[in-house]
Amino acid sequence: MAQTETRAASGFLPLAFSCLGHAYMHLFTAFYFVIILALEADWNLPYHELIELWTLGSLLVGLAALPAGWLGDRWSATGMMVVYFLGMGAAGILCGLVDSETALFLGLTTIGVFASIYHPVGIAWLVRHATSRGKALGINGIFGSIGIASAGLTAGALIDAFSWRAAFIVPGAVSLATGLALLVCMRLGLVGDVEGVAKAEEPTSRGTMLRAYAILLLTMAAMGIVFQASQAAIPKVFDLRLRDIAGEGTFGIGLMVALVYTVGGVMQLVGGHLADRYPLKPIYVGAFLFQVPVLAGVAAFSGLPLMALAAATVLLTTAALPAENMLLARFTPQRHHGLAYGLKFVLAFGTAPLSIMLVSKIQEATGEFVWLFLSLAGFAALATLAAVLLPGEAPRPTPAPAAAE
Questions:
Q1: Range of the domain at 310
Q2: What is the pLDDT of residue 12?
C-alpha cells in the first residue's frame, strides 16, 4: 500500500508543479502586454518604445531554452525547476521596483532567462512521469492557457487596485513561494528525477526522423511567430477596437484577454484526448489549416466577432500543442527529450523578437494591426503546407484506461 501511495505521489507532484510552472511561465511572459498600457500614461512614453524593452527578454526565452534543456538532462530536471521558480520570482519583484527604462529592460531580460527553463525542462519532466502522455500534456496545456488568461486579468486588477508595480511584485512573490515548496518536496524525497515510463513506440528510421525534424522545425518557427505576435498584439487590439465594451482602465481589457485565453485553453484537453487516440498528423495539419481564415477575420472585424475570432485562434493554437509535443517525443530518444524540447522552444520563443518588431513597426506605421494579422494568416498557411509533408502513422486503437498521473 505504501509503495502504491509513493508511486501515486511521485506521479502527481511532477504533474502539479509542472502545471503551476506552465501557468507562471505564460503569466510572466504575457503580463507586460497589459502592464504596458499603464506605463504609457505613468512614464509618458509611446507604446512602440515600451514594447521594445521586452525584445531581448523574449529572445532569451527561446535561445536559453537549449542550454536549459541540456542541463535538465545532464544535471537534474527537478533542480532546474526549483531554479526556474525562484529565479523568475526574484526577477518579477525586481521589475516592480525599477524607475527607469534601462532598469526595466534588464529586469524583463532576466525574466526571459529564467522563463526559458520551463518548457524544455518542465515538459520533458512531465513526459517522463506520465503514463498517458496526451492526457497529461492536455491538462498541462490548460494551465498554460490559464497563465496567459490570468496575465491580463491579474495585471489589470492589480494595476487598477494598486499600481503597475504590484502587477510585477505579487506574481513574483507567488513564484518564489512555489519554488520553496518544490525545494522542500525535493529534500523530503517526495519528488525527483526518474528515467521515465516505458512506452511502446513505432521504430523510426534515421531518414524518417530527419524528415520529421526538418518539417517540425519549419512549422514550429512559423507558428511561433503567430503565437508570439498574437499574444503581444491582442491586448492593444482590444484597447483600440473594444474600448466601448471594456470601459475605462485596464481591468476591462485584461478581463477580455482572460476570457479569450480561458475559452481557447480548454481545447488543450480535447487536443490531448484526440492525440492519445487518433493519428497525430491530421490533428496537427487541421489546426493550422483553420488558422488561416480565422487570423484573416481578426484583421477585419471588431466588436463581439473580434472576441470570438481571437478565442478561435487561441483554441486552434492550443489544440495542436499536445500532438506537436507527442510528435517530438516520438521522434526523439527518451534520454534526449530535454534537448529536443529545448530546440523546439528555441524556435517557438526565439521568433519572439521578430514578432515583437512586427507588432511594433506595423502599429507605429498604421496605428492598427490589420496588416499584422493578414501576415500571420500567411505564416499559418506556410505551416499547413509543411505539416502535410510529415510522416504518417497507422491509426491507433483506443487505449485501456490509464492510472491517474
A1: 2-192+205-387
A2: 76
